[in-house]
Specification:
The protein has 139 residues and is an all-beta fold. 0% of the residues lie in helices and 39% in strands. The radius of gyration is 24 Å and the shape is rod-shaped.
Length: 139
């Protein structure tokens, strides 16, 4: 043993894992790569709780590549509304829960976990047919 770090190559950042430092003396736990796609959500300003503070919101709901540590995160509006939550697990798995207002899908894109956020369309019930009433006046 020479004192250098060794670990499974599947855990290395180059392979989509959370670690960096194989063969060296310093191990970095950088988190798991996650692609966040909120383009179809809304024009509202969102930030990700647990990652970006509300005083410095991510005001562009677009595509973001992030390295996230295992934790439960959530989308929140800078106007105070809470959105869907998602969790990065200890082995990098990604799970998510939608809300009445937002749907969430989880899949992979080029080997990276992807979370897509969509605003649900609120469908109003059809309006009732107008009622026609004939009035006659009698002398």
């Amino acid at each position: 043993m020479n004192g250098n770090l060794t670990y499974s190559s599947s855990l290395d950042l180059k392979e989509g894992g959370p670690l960096k430092g194989a063969g060296g003396k310093v191990l970095e736990f950088l988190g798991f790569p996650v692609l966040i796609d909120a383009r179809a959500a809304t024009a509202e300003d969102f930030y990700i709780s647990g990652f970006v503070s509300s005083s410095d919101p991510n005001s562009d709901p677009s595509v973001q590549y992030l390295n996230l540590l295992p934790y439960e995160y959530g989308f929140n509006s800078i106007n105070g509304g809470a959105g869907p939550t998602f969790t990065v697990g200890l082995t990098g798995e990604l799970t998510a829960a939608g809300t009445d207002e937002y749907a969430v899908t989880v899949d992979t894109f080029r080997g990276i976990h992807r979370l897509s956020l969509f605003r649900r369309l609120m469908v109003r019930p059809p309006l009732p047919e107008p009622v026609h009433v004939e009035l006659t006046m009698t002398p």
